[in-house]
Structures are given as structure tokens and as C-alpha cells.
Amino acid sequence: MTSTRSPQHARTALAALARRQGGVILRRQAQEAGLTREQVRTLVQRGRWQALHQGVYLTSGFDPGGPPPLLARLWAAHLRCGPTSVIGLGSAARVLRLAGLPPELPYVDLLIPRSRHPRPDLRLRLHVAALTPGEVVRLRGLPVTSPARTLADLLLRIPEDQALGLLDSALHQGVLTDLGEVDRAVRYRPGADRARRLLPLADGRAESALESAARLDCIRGGVPPDDLQYRLLDARGRQLARADLCWRRGLRHPLLGDADDTPGPPRGPRPPPGGCSRLRFSWADAQQPGRVAARVRAALEQLRVNPAGSR
């Protein structure tokens, strides 16, 4: 039923509501604030509002020629599916600012209780799940699965290199400090053994998803790095170089490894400082299983104090 509030009062009430909902409102909310269906339709036709779903509108902060902001998309999906829906999986990871997933997908992941049956929509990917109160957090009012629940759900579904990147990112950014929470959230679920094997490998010193993927390939290939974010110093303690990965045990001098995902053609090898060798790893390396480890293994063989086959 439409309210009898004045147009100015309706605009003020709607603006305040939209600010609490990522700029998004429902048509029902607009009508309750005092707008008619015809007024809502006119706002959309004139480009002042953008329809995100049937009866769900973005009221501000959008580029008419571009995609809506992430927060608005998530709020629109949540409002579309009702108050019991919760943003989860990859969509939750993005709003939690976890690195390690591929570019944004064209749908929003939501967890819903079994009793809910929203109308199908290709822009939404729905997952039936029972969540405890501790597995839901509020980010700017938006219900999102907790970091531990988000990681647990994703570890069971995505490749191990992406999963390790997410774990590293959560630790690096302080989103999560105790991986025991993830262990408890994933335990006893199908595929839990594979997911739990990754937890001891996570390292908050990692600074990028590429670095995590390269490190995992080295671990799998039997050449794990000795250090992360290694600083090579001279005799006076001055920094000569810094590297994402470093191997130094049993070598004539350190082997440094850089995870470099700079767009464009690969850069040429940087001149290593005195008494040091250096490798550069790109996504082209990390996406071929065993390639990073093979390059490291070959370089280590050249640098060993007693290389294989020597007398």
C-alpha cells in the first residue's frame, strides 16, 4: 500500500534506506516510502535508477554504460532472495577482499535455507545450506559468510593453487588469524581430507596469488623454498635485494625467485646482485603443473656445493 508521505519526505526516506543497502532498494520499499509504481518506472526510464533484478533498483553511484558496483550487486541479490539469504563462496571472498580467485564471475553466490525457493535467475547461483549464527557476519549491513566458513566452502570446490592463495591472503591481510577455525568448519564434510592437507602449507608472508601458486608447485615438486620475502644484505646490513622466494641451504649462493604478474611482455632478467642467482615466475609458468619446480630444480643443481654426479 502506497504511503501518503510528501514527495520530499519520500525521497529523504529512500535516500537514507539506500545508503544502508549499498544504494539499492526494492520497489516495495519505494512504494512504502510514498512513490507510486509509475514514479518508479519513470525514474528507471530517465536513467536515474538502474534495474538490477525485477523489482530491485540501484538508485545512485552507477555508470549507465558500465556494470554496477560489486556491493550493489551483492545487496541486490540479497534483497532479491529475501532476508534469510547470505552472500557466500566466491562472492563472499571478494567482499572480504581475499585474493586468489579468477576475475569476477557474472553471478552472485548466495546460501539459502532449504525452505526458500527464489525464482530462478541466471545472475544468481543458489546453494542450500544450514548456517549457524557464528558463520554469518555483517559487512556494512550485508549478511556474508564468516571468513572461516567462506574459506571452508571454497576449499572444497576450487583447485588447490587457488585455495592456497585464498588461505595465504586471509592470513596476510589479517582477515583470519587462526586456521583452526577453517579446519573445524570443513571437518567431516565430503572432500575434507584434501582441503585440510592445505592448511599447514598456508603462509601469511605470501603477497600475491601468483606467489602462492608458484610456491605450491615447488612444494609438490620437492623443492620448497627456504624463505619467503627474503632480504639479501651486505656485510654492513644494507639491503641488496628482496625476493618473494629464496633457496639457500647447501648452495654456493642464494637462489632468489620473484612472482611477477606484471601485464604485458615478460621483462628481461634483472641483474642479480653479487653472489646471487635469480628466477622470475609468471602465470604462464604457474599454470603449467611442474614447470616452476622444474626451473627451480635445474637452477639448484647448478648452485649446489656438491652437485649430483660430482666427485
Automatic annotation (TrEMBL):
Pfam families, A to Z: AbiEi_4
Bias kind Pro residues: ranges: 263-274
Stretches the record annotates as Disordered: 255-280
InterPro entries: AbiEi_N (IPR025159)
Domain (AbiEi antitoxin N-terminal) ranges: 14-58
Protein name: Type IV toxin-antitoxin system AbiEi family antitoxin domain-containing protein
Species this protein is from: Streptacidiphilus cavernicola
